[in-house]
Amino acid sequence: CRALRAALGRRRTAALWRAWGLRLGDETSATRLLFYCGSGWRAALGWCLARLLGHTRCAARPSRRFEALLS
Q1: Which sign does the torsion angle of CA 2, 61, 22, 57 carry?
Q2: How far, CA to CA in Å, does 11 sit from each of 4, 7, 17, 30, 38?
Q3: pTM score above 0.70
Q4: What is the pLDDT averaged over residues 40-62?
């Protein structure tokens, strides 16, 4: 079932991130997650996962290097 696989994936991701010291969903904390990558798509994936896991203090930032290549 697709929904079950998605739920298991979110739980595994949350466990891994917590093992790394990230406090997901802790709105009392000053912790803000910033996801960064060269073109932006990997940062967007991290941002989406954090939001799905209940963390609202997060942002995704693409690199300006990619924009410079396009111009």
Answers
A1: negative
A2: 11, 6, 10, 23, 27
A3: no
A4: 84
Which token pair is 62? 């693409």
Q: Evaluate if residue 20 carries a pLDDT over 70.
A: yes
Q: What is the DSSP string of 22-58?
A: --TT-TTS---EEEEESSSHHHHHHHHHHHHTT--SE
| pLDDT value, residue 4 | 62
Q: How confident is the model at residue 50 (pLDDT cuts 50, 70, 90)?
A: confident
Position 52, amino acid: L
Answer for the pair 20, 36: CB distance below 8 angstroms, yes or no. Answer: no
The first and second tokens of residue 23, run together, are 């406090």
How, if at all, do strands 33-37 and 58-62 pair?
A: parallel
